[in-house]
Amino acid sequence: MDTLPVIDISCLGNSGTIGHDRAVAEIGRACRHIGFFYVTGHGIADDLMTGMFQAAHTFFAQAAAQKAALSIETSRHNRGYVAFQGEQLEAGRAADLKEAFNIGLELPPDDPELRAGAPFRGPNQWPEDLPGWRAQMLGYYDRMLALADRLHRAFALDLGVEERFFVPAMKRPLAVLRLLHYPPVAQPDLADAAAIGAGTHSDYGMLTLLAQDEISGLQVRRRDGTWIEAPVIPGAFVCNIGDMLMRWSNDVYVSTPHRVINPPSQDRYSIAMFCDPAPDTVIACLPSCCSEERTARYEPTTSAAYLTGRLDATYAFRAEA
Hints:
By secondary structure, the chain is of the alpha+beta class. The chain has helices at residues 18-33, 46-60, 64-68, 112-116, 133-159, 243-248, 303-314, 316-320; strands spanning 6-8, 36-40, 80-82, 99-103, 176-182, 196-201, 207-212, 218-221, 227-229, 237-241, 258-261, 268-275, 282-283, 301-302. It has a single domain (6-320), classed as Jelly Rolls (Sandwich), CATH 2.60.120. The chain contains eight helices and 14 strands. The longest helix has 27 residues, at 133-159. It is globular.
């Protein structure tokens, strides 16, 4: 497979129809073999996406001091601004040449978990000088969760469990909306660590929904070790399975390594939604994915425990704390 599958999900949710069943089958096939696919027919309007990319440009164009005031280093809950080279996704290489901004589930000040300081239940950090920006981000966040719900239902059907199996896990999720900015590199060279916007890695959680601007850069590693491009398809989201869902499905689904190469002459922006379960969700082998022939390959864990371990390895300041 030299290209990633493109799946029309416009009929997803219309149970019993040919289009619905075809979409479920195509999603399942992609998750089992490459772990990446595009979705079209998702119902997210082009003008919404245009506005989100404009908002990302506006945020990252702020002065360094304004962005640093919202640093993720001041949050124990994975929220805020990540400076250039603030992450290292691939061990043994230089830190990633990108900047990012993370937004989590917005909770009211009197929320019991927030007041108790529960893991991943802290307040978001918001820029003060961007009117309407917060509302725009939160509106998009909700739209992405609704899209993720449709895909999680397809996963459940394909994996042989009840269609709503994942729904409780996605109540009050650990989902993170992440804006990303990759600066240009004059002569991208994989031998040069400075050309890598995001080192080779697999995503940590359940499902990632990625919107790309007009500049490509994402590459996906096939099972045979060769790399293929994930070019921009206007109006489509790139979707991929994360390690947590791979564990939950007992390796029936695959979480695929990928990377981002910085463009040679233009800035690249992308918007990722990491759709991960609520903190206390138990990640254990699905009954439909375990048998005498295929025993459980992972010990049970929780969403919060698993993500904490992975994030500690990504952010140097966490390990040093």
